[in-house]
Amino acid sequence: MRAHTPAIAVKTLTYLLVSCVAFTAPATARADENEADLIAVLASDAPEGDKALACKKLAIYGSNAAVPELAKLLPNPRLSSWARIPLEVIPGSEADEALREAAGKLDGLLRVGMINSIAVRRDAEAVGFLVEQLHNEDPQVAEAAAVALGKIGGDIGTESLLAALKAPNSSNINFVAEGCILLAEQALAKGDTAQALEIYEMVRNAPVAEPRQVAATRGAIITGGPHGVQLLVELLESPSNEMRNIALITARELPGSDIDRALADALPKLKPEVAALVIGAMADRPDTVHLPALLTALEEGEPQVQAAAIRGLSQAGDASCLEPLLALAADEQSELAPLVRQTIAALPGDEVEVQVLAMLPKADEASRLILLDTIARRRLPATDTLTPYLTHEQPQVRHAALLALGETIDQDELDLLIAPVLETKHAEDTPVAYQALRAASVRMPDREAAAAELTEAMAQAESTEIKIAMLETLGAMGGENALRALHQAAKENNIALQEVATRLLGAWMTPDVAPVLLDLTQELPAGKYRVRALRGYLRVARQFRIPRAQRLEICEKALELADRDEERLLALETLTRSPHPRSLRDAAAQLDSDKLGAKASESVIAIAEQIAAEYPDAAADAARQVLDAGGSDEVLAKARALAGQ
Fold this sequence. Notes:
mainly alpha
């Protein structure tokens, strides 16, 4: 990066910020009055900060009248860059003359700044001076001059830069090359590709650093037509990673199909690691990609190349690629089979989906499984096509069809998956039927209706195993109907159902589970499931964003209903997270407990410290209760401080 670039960036940002301020100024402000006031600040003994601010504003309000005072600031190291901000945008020759004059008198970074501003203004009158600076002993000045000449252009500037580029043993040749590249970009912008290509080639053939070589090479490829395409292909075998990378990047940018044909022809001759990268570039051109080359790489390439072709086809392939991909996916010995399946699922185009459904009835067993998997992955609406395979003699086919239905059926077709769960002819199908039903249920647009249907089916089931599977699915779905079904199951006189229902309710992901868990805590007999319900109830207060009043009510109920100190301790800790006089009172009520007293003292003081500023009296009273009840030395010290003792 050039040494003067940061200054340019800061200056440009400052100008933009000032512009925003100026455009929001009152409409009644008069530019001439503002300018006169601002010029007066520059001419006065005002602090430098005020002068800097005036310079910024003159970038909006300034005219030729401001140039003399701005010019006086250019030699000042602290104000020079501020003065250049308005000088770069004030129209007229006066600003150009001021910058040229200062550039001739100043040295070092100040001269660099003047040259940068001259470049911004594209001042053709400064070209002679800039040509002289190409050979300045200060490399920063020489670089700034080269860049400025590249931006200004013109016959003299162009000839000087190109001559300097050819000069032997030029210490500034890399700066000159940068200027030449800017010249080529100007020519390209004007549509003069011939001149642009000539300059790019000169830079490429000059003894310049690799970054300049790379930039010029990219330009030569873009402007070179057939020659550029040939150059790009040659660079694919370059020992330089930078050159190879610029070829790969540029290959993605070039329009037309010539580059696609050239890449396809080059592909078999490249090393596998390079061929894989080229395939990636080819796939990034899906509109003109040469698919036969990718298919050949798929069938004949090294594993590395095959993998790249598989990934590339997922972006650029079409229905014509389905058969060769299917053949590779069906090869159980191929390590690439999983990747191929992903690509088949991702192949673009509606025609692919039509072909998948058409191939299914005629496919062999291995291909049929892949096609069924593809239907599932692509979520193709194919209920009528899939249903016959639910009774297929091969278990793998039945399972694949079930899973595909789980990913594809509509809301009104859910019964097709409920039926295999309620009654199946093959025991090995049962776990897959559960999985398919769950996958379908959780993606239904109306989950409440789906949950109601599952609840009704669960009531018909005679097997506890089936009911458990239904409960697991309902737990994954969520919603009011699912919550109601789990609530009922937790009260059943069936330990297996209680185990599943209380576990699912304890992990419920919405706070509307609180009343259900409270009811179970009150209704279930003492034991494991009552404890689980109470802990789940406390979890609502600890983990969900709920109103403080509800959180405190949960803690109070938990303290009232808890049979064990473990749950009471959880309630005390939860109270500490909700500092309020009410939580302070609830925690203080546990101070007399033989087993919880010490923890209650800690909770009371923790709450009191958090509310002392807003409720000093309540905090002091609670602290005195702790002093009476006792506690650790640290707790008592805090209590005395809160009580004012």
